[in-house]
Amino acid sequence: xxxxxxxxxxxxxxxxxxxxxxxxxxxxxxxxxxxxxxxxxxxxxxxxxxxxxxxxxxxxxxxxxxxxxxxxxxxxxxxxxxxxxxxxxxxxxxxxxxxxxxxxxxxxxxxxxxxxxxxxxxxxxxxxxxxxxxxxxxxxxxxxxxxxxxxxxxxxxxxxxxxxxxxxxxxxxxxxxxxxxxxxxxxxxxxxxxxxxxxxxxxxxxxxxxxxxxxxxxxxxxxxxxxxxxxxxxxxxxxxxxxxxxxxxxxxxxxxxxxxxxxxxxxxxxxxxxxxxxxxxxxxxxxxxxxxxxxxxxxxxxxxxxxxxxxxxxxxxxxxxxxxxxxxxxxxxxxxxxxxxxxxxxxxxxxxxxxxxxxxxxxxxxxxxxxxxxxxxxxxxxxxxxxxxxxxxxxxxxxxxxxxxxxxxxxxxxxxxxxxxxxxxxxxxxxxxxxxxxxxxxxxxxx
Length: 447
Hints:
Elements: H1 12-33, H2 39-46, H3 50-78, H4 80-100, H5 104-118, H6 122-132, H7 138-148, H8 151-155, H9 158-167, H10 169-190, H11 206-218, H12 220-231, H13 234-251, H14 256-283, H15 288-307, H16 315-326, H17 328-332, H18 334-342, H19 348-377, H20 387-394, H21 397-422, H22 426-431
C-alpha cells in the first residue's frame, strides 16, 4: 500500500525545507573553497611547500569522492535529516579544528574531517528535492540548487580574504565554523525526510547492502547517470580550482586581477546557463543525455580553438572558452535527474552516491595528469611554465571527454532498452515531453 501523505508536495513547507537544506549546501561549498584564498597564509602558518599545500585540496576531493557510495547507503538506511545533521557536525568540527591547528598533520586531519562532512550534504539535498517537489519542478530546482550553492565559493573569495587580513587566521575560521551551529538548529527544527508517513528510508540489513549496491550498479540507467556526471563537470573543476588561474596568467599573459575577475564571472554564468538547462531538461526528458553530449562538444571545440594557437588567444575567445567550460557544471546535474528516472526512491541515495563519484573521479584524474605533463615538460616549476607547456598539458582533457561520451552513448542505448523492457510506455511518455519517475516497484528488475 502507498504511504499516507501528511504534507503537500511542492508547497510552502517544501520550500522552507529546501531553503534550509540549500543553506547547508552553500556552507559546504564555502568550507570546500575556503582554502583557495588562504593558501599563502596556510603555507606560512604550517611551514609547508607548494606540494604539501596542494595536498589539502587533493585530500578533500579524495575523501569526498571515496565517501559517496557509503554515504548513499547511509542516506537510504537512515534518512536525509540524520545525514545533514551528521555532515554539518563534521564540517563544523573540522573547520574549528582547522582554525586552531598549529601544525601540518593536525591541519590535514581537520580538512579530512571537513571533507567527510561535505560528502554528506549534496546528495542529501538532492534526495529532499526528489520527494518534496512535483515531478515537473524537480529538474529546475535541482539546477537551481547547484547554481545557488556557488554563492559559497563567492563568499570564500573576497569576503574571506578581507576577514583573514583583518581578523587573522584563528578568529576567521572559528567564526566560519560557528555558522554550522546555527544551521544545526535550523535543520533539527525545520527539515523532514518526507511528506509521507513512511520516511522512505529503507531499513536494509547490513549483509544485504552489498547485494543492493550490485542491483543499483547493474542498472544501466545508473551507469548512464554516472558517466554523464563524469564527462560534463571536470573541465570546470580543473579550471576553477587549480589550473585555470596559472593558465591565464602564465600562459595567456593576463594579470592576476583579470584572471580573478574571469573566474568570478564564470560563477555568474553558471547560474544563467543552469536555469536554461533546467528548463530544457524539464521540456526534453528523452534527450537529457544528448544535452550533456552537446555541452561537452561545445567545450571541446572551444578548448581546441584556444589550444591550437601558438600565441595567446584574443580576449573574446578566452571568455567564450571560460563560459562554455562553466556550462559543464549545470550539465553535470543532469546525471542526478537521470538517476531519479531509473531508481526507486528508497534506493536513490545509493544511486546518487554512485553518480557523484563520477565527476570528482574525473576531476582528480585530470588534475593529476595535467600536473604530470607539466612536470615532464618543465621541471622548473610554476614560474617556468609557458603557453606551450599549458597547450600540451591541458590537451589531456580530450582523453576523458572521448571516454565519457563513448560511455554515455553506450549506456544510453542500454538504458533505453531497459526502460522499454521493464516499464512499457516510459519512453513514449518521455518522447512526448512528459517526465518519467520510477514507480518504486520491482527494484530488482532483472538487472
